[in-house]
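Weekly sync, protein design subgroup
Attendees: M.S., D.O., the rotation student, P.L. (late)

Item 1: inverse folding check
M.S. brought a backbone from last month's batch and wanted to see whether the design step gives back something sensible before we order anything. D.O. pointed out we never logged the input encoding, so this time it goes straight into the notes. Structure tokens as presented (242 positions):
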């Protein structure tokens, strides 16, 4: 579903993605883990074409990522992205936040988009909040709305970039539960997270990145209990102490 083939990217002198090769099958859930600054967000942004790459190829569902214009908007509709900050439109209701993309980009009729939005909001547990504004919701609720908004576009892949790291601890689980449900329904997912519980429950594979490289790839169980590289051992030593 997603193929990265010898992908390289520089920010000036910084070689932020170094010969990345990664192949993600339909329905696969891949957790990307690694120290801050290792290129995890850049990798997600490259898959969504929010960042250009300098070298190599990325394809989605067999098609190379488009450069610009209408096809690029189409690609963005097919790759759902959920960030650390929820990025909801403050002056639109929850329902409007979720229907905006389907109406504008997918050209759905308002009533169809609203029906589907309500289903999705119910599914992520915030159906009662549809007519409220983002500021009236908790962080965990807003992040679940952000997930519903991405799903409303019927994406082929969902990218999550540290979706729970801005949340208070008691709200992390409600967001992870929605993500686990999505994984169980067969969504293809790339998830940057340090939540080991999620990785163990939902991921097929853990990809460990450090300094722009994929250093190690393994099943969650193997990765967490038996990391191979010194960098992975060092990293896990640090996050496990917390
Ligand atoms: N737009 C940018 N311009 C210059 N450097 C950047 C930019 N975005 C990220 N970087 C740098 O690239 C490296 C990788 O960043 P990032 O992909 O955000 O890492 P991670 O998500 O793993 O913390 C960092 O050193 C960061 O400072
Ligand atoms: Mg990041």
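Designed sequence read out in the meeting:
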């Amino acid at each position: 579903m997603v193929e990265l083939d010898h992908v390289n990217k520089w920010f000036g002198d910084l070689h932020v993605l170094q010969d990345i090769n990664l192949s993600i099958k339909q329905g696969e859930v891949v957790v990307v883990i690694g120290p801050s600054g290792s290129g995890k967000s850049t990798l997600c942004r490259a898959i969504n074409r929010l960042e250009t790459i300098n070298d190599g190829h990325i394809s989605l569902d067999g098609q190379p990522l488009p450069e610009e214009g209408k096809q690029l908007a189409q690609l963005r509709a097919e790759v759902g992205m959920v960030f650390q900050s929820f990025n909801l439109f403050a002056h639109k209701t929850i329902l409007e936040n979720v229907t905006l993309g389907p109406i504008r980009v997918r050209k759905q009729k308002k009533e169809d988009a609203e029906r589907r939005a309500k289903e999705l909001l119910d599914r992520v547990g915030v159906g009662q909040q549809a007519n409220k504004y983002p500021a009236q919701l908790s962080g965990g609720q807003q992040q679940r709305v952000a997930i519903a908004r991405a799903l409303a576009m019927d994406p082929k892949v969902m990218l999550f970039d540290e979706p729970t790291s801005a949340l208070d601890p008691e709200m992390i689980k409600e967001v992870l539960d929605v993500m686990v449900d999505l994984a169980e329904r067969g969504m293809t997912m790339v998830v940057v997270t340090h939540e080991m519980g999620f990785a163990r429950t939902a991921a097929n594979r853990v990809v460990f990145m450090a300094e722009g490289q994929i250093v190690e790839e393994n099943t969650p169980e193997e990765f967490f209990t038996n990391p191979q590289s010194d960098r992975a051992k060092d990293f896990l030593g640090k996050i496990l102490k917390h």
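Discussion: The two ends are 35 Å apart (CA to CA). The CA atoms of residues 103 and 130 lie 17 Å apart.
Action: P.L. to compare against the previous round before Friday.
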